[in-house]
Amino acid sequence: MVTNNSKKHGTGPPARPVDWPLIDRLANMHCTAEEIGYACGVSDRTLRRRCVAEKHCSLGEYISKQTVVGKVSLRRWMWEKAESGNVTMQIWLSKNILGYADKVEHAGQGGQPLAVRVEIGSSDGTKPFKEITQT
Fold it and tell me: pLDDT grade, residue 6 (50/70/90)?
């Protein structure tokens, strides 16, 4: 049996350079591996291989680290907006961080649920044809 060992490793096209700063920015914005690959002009499979070879971790781990950086940046920008007097951002942060809410709860006597009675009748004031009571 004859084997063909004439093909040398690395005879394919040269490897495309990967723009890691672009990948970082896209991962900060929570882009998927597929979206990042598309923006960089390579497949997500290529990105996965290159990440292991160049960054010594999986692409998923790398993107996760970068999304944390994006969350920190977003939180910082939101905080700066609130500190500069942006009332909308102050309200939003107070609801999401401090647990404040616009919800107003109504209760009946002694904290019991309110009883609601609705009468639907004719305009001439005759006996209602439907009565609904709910607690």
Answer: very low
